[in-house]
Amino acid sequence: MLRNEHLVGVPAAKTALEEIAVQIAASHVDIGLKERTFNDRFKNVVLYVNKIDLKERKLLDIFIEDKRKPDVVSTVVAPEGRLLSEPGKFIFHLMLSNGTIHQTNLKKKSATAIRFGTYNLSLDMSKDMARDGRRHKSREEMSIGELRGFIDSHRERDKAYYDAQIILHRRFSIPVACLALGLLAFPLGIQSRTTRRSFGLILCLFFFLLYYLLLTAGYAFGENGAYPPVIGMWLPNILTVSVGLYFLLQAARERTLVIETVVQLLVRAFSRLKRFQRRRRHVHSR
């Protein structure tokens, strides 16, 4: 099996990135908070911080709306506080100082206000993180075996089915494209020595653009099932290799490439047209 960064590294990197993001959220949730923004990361709790002091790890001018209790809305206002986390857990403690708690009981239609010197507000994200940890991988994160299993078990021929096939074949076709384009560039580079130096570069750019257009068309038609995704992902490589082998054979026989002849004829025709226009202007100027 062909194994390289595109086959293995990309899905593994996406999964690792998700795991790192979860670990950062568990240990440094205060980094994700934004100043002067209502943060609703915690369920049923809205947190607003006017300023964040990262050096002292302090939160300044804090406003909290807590709706975790049924029929009770608690509004907490404090000039400063600290957000701490328990190692290895998704439980956070917001230690507030010298603030006020305003509680409104919607059922009893009552309101109370409590002043405090220190107040510990516990925020538990373990259930939410556990649910996120059990989420299904996206198709970009799946390994080759997982993609094949998804395709075999997916009976409906819908967008998800075709997307999985495109991603699977793309894992192989894109690395092969490097070899295909390299094979095509070799005879073009040889031919450019006998003509202008920039001519081979222009042809390479032309075929690269053509390859990109074919690949884009393969994505578009493969996603909606117009034709099998295997054709859309591999047809650009097949055409590129075929043209490259033909050009290589022509170069080995020291023959001029057909496309080079066509381009040279177009250049000559354009040059003659420019000379004709100059002569015409010269005649009219007299």
How would you characterize the overall build of this protein?
The protein is of the alpha+beta class and 286 residues long. The protein has helices at residues 5-27, 29-32, 126-133, 144-153, 159-194, 197-223, 229-252, 258-285, and strands at residues 38-39, 45-53, 58-66, 72-85, 91-105, 110-124. It has a six-stranded antiparallel β-sheet with strand order 1-2-3-4-5-6, with no helix packed on it. Helices cover 56% and strands 22% of the residues. It contains eight helices and six strands. The model is unreliable at 1-5 (pLDDT under 50). 18% of the residues are buried. The chain folds into two domains: 12-133, no CATH class; 144-255, no CATH class. The longest helix has 36 residues, at 159-194.
